[in-house]
Amino acid sequence: MARARVRGIGQSLFLMVDIKSLSSNQRFAMNVLVPSLYLFPLVFAYIGPKNFGFGYDGLVYAGLAVSAVGTTLWILSILTLGHSLAVLPGTDRLVTRGVYRYLRHPIYIGIILTLGGLFLACGSTICLIYVFVVVVPLNIFRARAEEVVLQEQLGEAYQQYRAGTFF
């Protein structure tokens, strides 16, 4: 069983569990569970009723544009991370090239923009609510968890990087 860690209020489950003490099955479960939280609203939007742009054609195009920016940011971030990409926090090196030169968590921003844009375009109120109630807080919590782990692992190098970048 994972050893509990006590952290400040507002920290995620990732911070309350010592990642290193997770078994391979537990790590696998986390690696499947977290991404599925992003997939769930996509499935719902696909099979659910649609009210494209909430009746406004301009919102369809705006939503698709936001989603395209988010998807581009998400893909560029993944490509930049390469082998450093992981669902659970932790690394042995700091990636500071590409979009990471400006943003510490561009994947999370890309996910939010992609999902928010798609759900705006297809006019899904319930999915937009899901983005703001589940996806945004999940990504903030994940970012905080990563920051704690990276600060512990990389020390001053991460602190300097953090000072020069946005979320």
Give your account of this protein's structure.
- This protein has 167 residues and is an all-alpha fold.
- The protein has a single domain, classed as Up-down Bundle (Four Helix Bundle (Hemerythrin (Met), subunit A)), CATH 1.20.120.1630.
- It has 6 helices and no strands.
- The protein is globular and about 50 Å long.
- It starts with 12 loop residues before the first helix and ends with a helix.
Please tag this protein with its features.
single chain, 167 residues, Four Helix Bundle (Hemerythrin (Met), subunit A), 65% helix
Which CATH architecture? Up-down Bundle
Major sheet: none
Structural class: mainly alpha
Domain module count: 1
Q: Unreliable runs, pLDDT <50, ≥5 residues?
A: 1-16
User: Could you give the distance between the termini?
Assistant: 32 Å
Question: What's the gyration radius in Å?
Answer: 17 Å
**How many separate helices?**
6
Mean pLDDT value: 84
Run of helices and strands: HHHHHH
The best one-word shape is globular
Can you tell me the CATH topology?
Four Helix Bundle (Hemerythrin (Met), subunit A)
By CATH reckoning, the class would read: Mainly Alpha
User: How big a fraction of the residues is strand?
Assistant: under 5%
* Share of helical residues: 55-70%
Oligomeric state of the chains in view: single chain
Number of strands: 0
